[in-house]
Fold:
Amino acid sequence: MRYLKVHASVGMAGWFLLLVIGVSSRLIPMFLLSRKEKKAYLTAAYYLINTALLLFLTDGMLFQTSGGVFFYIALLAAGLACYLVFVVNCYQSAVRKKMDAGMKMTIIAISGIAAPFILLIIAVFFYHSTPASVIVAYGYSFFAGFITTLIMGQTFKTLPFIVWMHLNKPNTIAELQPKDLYEEQLVALQMYLYLPGFLLFLAGILLKNQWVMYPGCVLMTTASLMYCGHVFHIVNKLRK
Amino acid sequence: MIQLDITDPNYQDKLLLMEMLSTVKDPELGLNVVDLGLIYQVAISENKVNILMTLSTPACPAADYLKTAVELTASNTFKDYIIIVEITFEPEWNGDMISEAGRKELGW
Structure:
């Protein structure tokens, strides 16, 4: 079980988190047209998170001490803080201040990046007394909160552009723009359904109350169906 | 955004060209290339139109499209002319090059 914990944490912080940080650090300044990028913060985030991971992995696999946990988590938190400073700086220096729903979802996902790690800290520091619901909430908030919100937002930033590139014939001036290939209001509605749904479901997990989970589940399912239909609608334009 | 000299003998042609280029939009931002400040220079001689332009970033995924769209718009406007579009990153584009109208549209 101990190895499984190491495996899961390294997977989430090592694979998902670093992948998301890497990709978003290129996409966010590009979409916002940021004038300045404080890359030193990004470099610091890279070294801090990777050092935390290496130490956690070595300790978890070989020594299995409990004293170092404070240190790894402090390093990870410092790395995340550096990344958030980088994102805030990108936004502050952005030429494009008006954000569409896709970009809003991305920013919400990144702003909420700390939530799963706060739950992780609670789960680690109060390992013996922590109810299983906090551990479930940690995994849930990482995948259904951070990763899913990010994917849902970024889909409508990248997919219409990719489809538009395919639709656009060489040596012609495009009549349609990528924003004409999807419904902005539908993305906004999807965001307004998904986020409260996510929060209700999270509250339901923490409170161990199924009646709080049900409406959350309905809202998230509705948003997911809308998302799938919308993606299909965009991709379907390639067939015409 | 480039300023046209009213005393230039090709002023009218350049004005027309800039107006036509204002119909070419950046696919991501939805703002036209003139207001974005991507057009650095236009020169019109007897049978040649030279356009010097830039991109918001060297890694712009719409680079080919923008160059082609500018080229086609210019050749549709000046049918018997040779159109030469060049891309430069000197000086590097920045937000200060966006026109007042463009800034308003972007919510700046």
About this structure: Residues 63-77 of chain B form the longest helix (15 residues).
